[in-house]
Input
Amino acid sequence: MDVTSILTNLNAAQEEAVTSDKQHLLVLAGAGSGKTRVLVHRIAWKIQVDNISPFAILAVTFTNKASREMRERIDELLGISLRGMWVGTFHGLAHRLLKAHWRDAKLPENFQILDSDDQLRLVKRVMRSMDLDEQRWPPKQAQWWINGQKDEGLRAAHLQEGGDPFLATMLRVYRGYEETCERLGVIDFAELLLRALELWKYNPQVLAHYQQRFQHILVDEFQDTNAVQYAWLRLLAGTVSGVTAVGDDDQSIYGWRGAKVENILSYERDFSNTHTVKLEQNYRSTSNILLAANAVIAKNADRLGKNLWTDSGEGEAIALYCAFNEHDESRYIADRLQSWVNDGNRREDSAILYRSNAQSRVLEAALLQADIPYRIYGGQRFYERLEIKNALSYLRLMLNCHDDVAFERVVNVPPRGIGERTLEVIRNLARDHTISLWEAASAILKEKQLAARASNAVASFLQLINEMSGQLDELPLAEQAENAIQHSGLIEMHRREKGERGQARVENLEELIGACRNFEPEDKDLPVLPQFLDQVALDAGDRQADQDQDAVQLMTLHSAKGLEFPLVFIAGMEENLFPHKMSLDEPGRLEEERRLAYVGITRAMQKLVLTFAESRSIYGSESFNSVSRFVRDIPKDVIEEVRLQNTISRPTSYAASAIRSDEGEATGFHLGQQVSHKVYGEGAILNFEGNGPRARVHVSFEQVGTKILILASANLVAV
Output
């Protein structure tokens, strides 16, 4: 292969990056700018022009898929197979290293790797040996905490409790977990990286061998590296090897996983003699989409700075739809999708993105109603999610305590000390006497067949279900659901889980309450709970589209990174939803939310549709949020506000407030009025549902937030 063919079809910036002769290179690769192409061609350049052996090059990616693609493209470009070349993920390369040097790494020769589930089981085992209450100290929280310390390069021996009871307990678990892993000869995924780093730190001869071996190191998605990965790279590079780092600080969206955007921001300082190249020409999106993305990300202060551009034309304006509520929003998206398909497009060329998993419930319902096949990318449908199945099982038990499937699912969720041995006793009695698990548990308690601790745990569970069941006739459906997830301890268990996953599960449980609040039974004269559970079962029976079926893609904004679609919807563009309300209180989180918006916008190739709702029932309560600051950042001349014939709107900034003008009549109150409530204090009226004394009124109270009240019984007083 000659030099000319390596540089074929590269633009000027890409060619500069591929051919740079500086020791270190930082490639700031904007969305859709051809970063993989640059990485592959730079490897070919190093082999063909700089005469570096393919086996003296180390290329690191973040996913197995990316490493396979890189290897295939290198083989294709060079026309030869480079099977033994060191191309892989951080974890894959660390594993290869540890297998070769297991003695120096103080590991058994045939050490085993724990996946996440196996690791959690081991953490539980350690915590049980310490007699820790799993309700007070959730094992998932301990697992998350241990992995977080390892990602920072910290062993238990490096940490001090400093009088903090939480830290003291976590340290005990960490020490016990380390000792157990050592005894069993197993390591987890975070340990792979930490042990590989320590292999080099404590074995200079091994480090010297690899520093001499690898003349050039290339790293993809550099903005996603954590503390251990960065330390690993710096140690390996030493003072001789060259490093090419390819990444985009504007797409660093995994801070909650331990990724440190600071690594790419400080690269030029830590690696002297660095040449920086910016890839700003975008080959994916239209000019209008890029103008929007540039405007949103420009508000971030801590960035290296670049400006995406394209020569592919202006394209369509960005559509902005102001919905009355989340159901109107979902119907609009479904209608727009159907029009897209009717125009001859494939559904799989479109995607609906959202900030929170909980948003998918209403979107799924609208797509099912419109008979539009869909697939949730990298996730599960709403009613298939673990926390939702658990909550529904409690509701089913409240309705029918003899539901064995529900009983078995939640009898020890959250953990309440009912172990497998106790369950086996209950199962055996139920099978022998052909009775339900509930009846068997009751009989065993009466006959005192269990040890005191197990007996108390089972009795407490039966009492819990009985108490919640006794309130079914008194409470509306939404309050039944709230009762179930609160009193069962489900929501508290996930609140303690920490991290993005725990937060998502809490939001999903709260969204289930919203689903109950909005549920309309077919028969008003029959109990509502069994009708709701029947409907959920029917919805769950409508499966996602098969893998080979043409279907629209639904996914969170985090899952969308690295993907592209001709048509993209971003739903829920509202303050407190996106940016997420939790980002407003934590340093650095708002900047990460802005980067997430930038990632979402740049997934669109031809058409981008942004939607927001004036009122939204989500996480179990009604909210009235203003349009997202990210929408307000977009230049007005690239946005086209959608006006449907049957909507009545009162436009302010970006159609900020459409209301039904006739509602609220004959109530004695008006929108915006200051009122007082004997329990909630003072607040302002935001909205009405209906007229007269039976109208529901939405009031934003200063102390407790927004409440929905029936005027006839609220006893509101005008201030």
Observations:
- Residues 318-381+544-641 form a domain with the Rossmann fold fold (CATH 3.40.50.300).
